[in-house]
Amino acid sequence: MTTMRPPTDPAELHRLMSLMTGDEKHSAAATSTLDVLQVLYDRVLQVDPEHPDDPVRDRFLLSKGHGPMAFYAVLAAHGFLDESELATWAQPGSRLGLHPDRVLVPGVEIGSGSLGHGLPLAVGTALGLRIRGLTTPRVFVLVGDAELDEGSNHEAIAYAGRSGMANLTAVVVDNASATHRGELAELFLTEGWRAITVDGRDHDVLETALTAAHDDRPLAVVAVVESKG
Amino acid sequence: MTMTTRIAAPTMREAFLRAAADAIDADDRTALVLADISAGADPVPDLAARHPDRVVNVGIREQLMLGVAGGLALTGLRPVVHSYAPFLVERPYEQLKLDLGHQGVGAVLVSIGASYDQPGIGRTHEAPEDVAVIDTLPGWTVHVPGHPEEADRLVRESIDADGLVYVRLSDETNAEPHHGEGLQTIRRGSPDDVVVAVGPTLDRVLAASRFRDATVLYTSTVRPFDAAGLRRVVGEVPTVTMVEPYLEGTSARVLAEALSDRPHRAVMIGHPREESHRYGDHELRL
């Protein structure tokens, strides 16, 4: 496995996304996550499409399963999916649903869609890797700012912050879609996490934040993008 | 003079915790996930001291308890998850559905409290619906032990196996354990009058005058239901009475499927479907 990959051409990702057509009400969710996903897969994650179940791979959990076109496009760009399959998106019999399904799609770590499940699952995954003595793999989970309204996330944030989970990073893609909005970084900081707020469209800044030192704590990266509107 | 020390028989809860501790000592793929309940009960504190990583107490956070179990299972571990039935099955129902079943991973869920084990504390801690709730989800094995020795065996077997297992423990027990597989014939009687006693209801069924002439079957495993075993026992036009220590009618579906090839009369006995505001009185009426 290596992170030394040629950077994905943004135009290529948009071309891949354009192959997935149809009635998609979560297109804003897809475009909001695109840059974070690109940086993760281009520069950060240690994953290998030839060995998607490698025990020592990094885990990326897309908790915000809405609008997975960006995720599928990045997986295709990195060899987890054949480009030709993208056109089957959301069609009867396709592996590529409106929400990603780990049982069907290689490289997808969790089936998601219902909000508030990915972060607790990520906490369990981080614990499990530690229990198994796997110190190399890191766990990244992507949540949306509105998703943080779900109470299950608060259970996970409070527990993880007090459990020394230095192998866990939560990426909050903030497109200002939460109905009752709080201070996102503060939510994590007060529970013992390290938290960084960055421009969610600046790839270099994102890479720096996603690979920042954890200081024996879980890390939250709040990636701010344009408002959903 | 001879001195004897009387060692109290363990409860199902004690039998479970010992079995789980043995499994965690013996197998580094086993982990116990708690939400405070039983965290201070023997032998959990000593177990946690020996295996601090694999005894995970998330505090009173039941959604997280199931999410953590799902994550542990995704890394190849065998989580054993435990709490009172309403906090293990009802409150985190979506986590059972999505964090375990939908992810395609297994776990062993072990509840205490049963339907009305502590009737004094009321509706909030009672879950006579638990098996019916689990039964809405595919792929679950459901054990309802009727004796602490059965609980010990079923917990150990469940941890050793794969898949999704719910073990419903109770303070109610029969006098003796019955360790056979599937439906066991406890008393032979009329093949046209057959009673299926589930878990801790057996001794009361055997004592009930209304079932004096009936064939009495027993099972501690209700899902999957031993339909073939029932068909081997019953007559051509049987009356089958199912006595379950939880919500009445919970197994009506599987009973109807089992006997779909013959006319039959089904009688379902269990706790009534009610919004209870009663404290201290929930005797199962036979």
TrEMBL record, chain A:
Transketolase N-terminal domain residues: 25-218
UniProt-listed Pfam families: Transketolase_N
Organism field: Actinomycetospora termitidis
The protein's name: Thiamine pyrophosphate-dependent enzyme
